[in-house]
Structure formats: C-alpha cells, structure tokens
Amino acid sequence: MWHYHGMARVRVSTTVDSRLLEEARRLRSGMNDAGLLDEALTALLQKHRRAQIDAAYAVYDEHPLSEPDAWGDLESFLDAAGRE
Fold first, then answer.
1. Half-sphere CA count of 83, side-chain side, radius 13 A
2. How far is CA 42 from the centre of its chain?
3. What local confidence, expressed as pLDDT, does residue 3 receive?
4. In total, how many domains does the chain have?
5. Domain limits for position 59
C-alpha cells in the first residue's frame, strides 16, 4: 500500500552544528541526511508527546491515592482490583 500513497516531502535548507552532524552521520552510517532529519524530528515529537502525557498524569501527584472523591478512593479500588 505504501507504494501507492507516497509520503509528502518538503525540501529543507539550513545550517547545523558541524560536529553534531558528523556525530549523527557516524552513528547512523548508511543513512542519508534526510533520513537523519526525519529520525531527529520523529524523536523530538515523541519526546514532546511523552512530556504531554507526563503532565496529564501530574494531577495524580497533587492528591494521595487514599483521598476520597465522589466515587470513593483510588487506593481502595486498586487494592480490590489486585485481590481478584
């Protein structure tokens, strides 16, 4: 299926730290610069997504598991779920 639906590509022209580029080329020998940039951008987006998820879970750090809410407390629920 991939051969029928090509990935949209855009040309990027920029300058980068030469030592950084040399190190990346050394680590990923055989990969062209476009592949290096794709990999770097993918890693950046994954890192950003992980930070978003971590931030969403941070609210749980504000309240102890034993603190009751309208449905009870999460600690008791987790204890009960673990016993089954």
1. 6
2. 9
3. 58
4. 1
5. 18-83
Please list, in sequence order, all residues whose beta carbon lies within 8 angstroms of the beta carbon of residue 75, skipping any fewer than 6 positions away.
64, 65, 66
Q: Is residue 7 part of a domain?
A: no
Distance CA 26, CA 30 (A): 9
Looking up tokens 């051969």 gives 3
Confirm whether 35 is domain-assigned: yes
Residue in the structure block whose two tokens are 């855009």: 10
Backbone angles phi, psi at 69, to 5 degrees: -130, -160
36 class by beta-carbon count within 10 Å (0-12 exposed, 13-18 middle, 19+ buried): middle
- φ, ψ of residue 26 to 5 degrees: the values are -65, -45
Continuous H helices in 7-65: 18-27, 33-57
Give the pLDDT confidence of 1-57 residue by residue, as tens digits. 555 667 789 999 999 999 999 999 999 999 999 999 999 999 999 999 999 999 998
